[in-house]
């Protein structure tokens, strides 16, 4: 099974989650600047949710995906907003890509908010998320 992890992380919060997911799966997480292999069975995509939505570079990455990606699992971080899942799911489905109904989201540290997040507990839950998706 071909599984890949891609992420966009400006502050390092989403990278921590991406690395935890990838570690659990025995692979290496890569930034979205690295393309996705053809015939990817499961692609984990992570990003943060900002006030204006997901980052424009992440949107471009998603809009360049095609049906050679069979299924996507979404993970995200945010300091205040809830989840990037609805926006990412809508974009992915517009590309004809199957999106897992489960997602992973946790708080991310921003200035003085949510200090040291994602924390160890968050990363343990991210690893569980990865295992559950791959089952």
Automatic annotation (TrEMBL):
Molecular function (Gene Ontology), one example: oxidoreductase activity, acting on NAD(P)H
Pfam family, one: Flavodoxin_3
Domain (Flavodoxin-like): residue spans on this chain: 5-109
Gene3D superfamilies in the cross-refs: 3.40.50.360
Protein name stated in the entry: Flavodoxin
